[in-house]
Amino acid sequence: MAEQQNEYQGKATMEKITSLAKRRGFVFQSSEIYGGQAGAWDYGPLGIELKNRIAQTWWKEMTQLHDDIVGLDAAILMHPRVWEASGHVENFTDPLVDCKKCKARFRADQIDPEKLAKKECPECGGELTDTRKFNLMFKTNIGAVEDSSSVIYLRPETAQGIYVNYKNIIQSNRMKIPFGIAQIGKAFRNEIVTKNFIFRTCEFEQMEMQFFVKPGTDEEWFNTWRDRRWKYYEKLGVKMDHLRWHRHGPDELAHYAKDAYDIEYLFPMGWKELEGVHNRSNYDLSRHMQFSGKDLQYIDQDNGNERYIPFIIETSAGLTRSLLMLLCDAYDEEYVGTGDPATSDKNSDDWRTVLRFHPNLAPITVAVLPLMKKDGLAELAQDIRAELKEDFATDYDQSGAIGRRYRRQDEAGTPFCVTIDYQSKEDNTVTLRFRDSMEQVRVHRSELVQRIRAEIKNYKRTK
């Protein structure tokens, strides 16, 4: 593992990321015209494309590249007993305190222990209330009558939908242990303290895979999945010195966990959890057997019909949190002028803001830019875009100076720009520009798709 940093040294700040996200159409505040809804965000044209590509990449990694993992899309609304069995009704709480002076609310476990003991607010010095537990599940009612019998919850995690379907999948798809079930879906948590943009929100999406193994083999599989998940981020092209492992101590372990590690990323606000890899033992299936009365033992027909309750190795990553990580990781400010960068105005054309996404993740793969709107260049450019659309996500921009258009595409993270000029009309060649290096080469129109595919396949991030 690369040497880990202790302090953030990147160029991104949360203020810059938030501003760029809105300016370029990645993320908007939910219900902004009404003052916004805390803990909720809307994903704009570039944001939904980036989110979909992250999900597609994860899905391919988990299912297409593994013969022993299948997919599932379970319902958000589940029987209330599911959450009793899982322990969420009893244990899914945050310790909260309020300041009597400024009315701010805090998680008690994130306050300096000395200040908490003195009941001193970390911001204004006012007196804090006693610590109380707050359940994070959203509760609502189903049916015509609102009473205790109609209570239902919005799921706080996607994993339980996998556990209650585990026997269905064994029977319908003839799965044999070891095997996994992958799922991407919405989850909801009534977070009282939401902050750091889209890092912690009330509505989010999870990418989870639950891998069912024979007891006694769980530690080996746990280490295997830790290794696989680390290599996944290498494939994404992220800065590996901004990643590290954090092992949960005895006081951190969830009630279901035998062992747990987090992959942490060095965000601008410090080291924060990006993904968890957990050995959940056989807790979940045992509890669902107890509460449902159904036999969830696995029958190993290859070993004399041996019966056991599988252990579960879980990998759990936040889709929306991964999007924030990639925005922070890709963000760069680069001097492209000819003078002294120390004396250059950061708002001048001597500087560019660029998102260095891996081309497989970039919301736009290729931007098509006619040098001029007239003399048939725009029409030719549209024809070329139509050809590229079959293979890549494209954008078309004919407004403003070509340099300004390049800057707009750099800021959106577009790895390739194709410029159509007067020479294109004569010999059917175009200028292919590379985002990272800003290098430009002439390519024949007939070879353009093949060249871009090769560049994507061989892409290696250099900055």
UniProtKB/TrEMBL annotation:
Family in the record: Belongs to the class-II aminoacyl-tRNA synthetase family.
Gene Ontology cellular component list: cytoplasm; extracellular exosome; microvesicle
Residues engaged in binding ATP: 189-191, 199-204, 273-274, 318-321
NCBIfam families in the record: glyS_dimeric (TIGR00389), PRK04173.1 (NF003211)
Keywords assigned: Aminoacyl-tRNA synthetase, ATP-binding, Cytoplasm, Ligase, Nucleotide-binding, Protein biosynthesis
Subcellular location: Cytoplasm
Protein's UniProt name: Glycine--tRNA ligase
PANTHER family the record matches: DNA POLYMERASE SUBUNIT GAMMA-2, MITOCHONDRIAL, GLYCYL-TRNA SYNTHETASE/DNA POLYMERASE SUBUNIT GAMMA-2
Function: Catalyzes the attachment of glycine to tRNA(Gly).
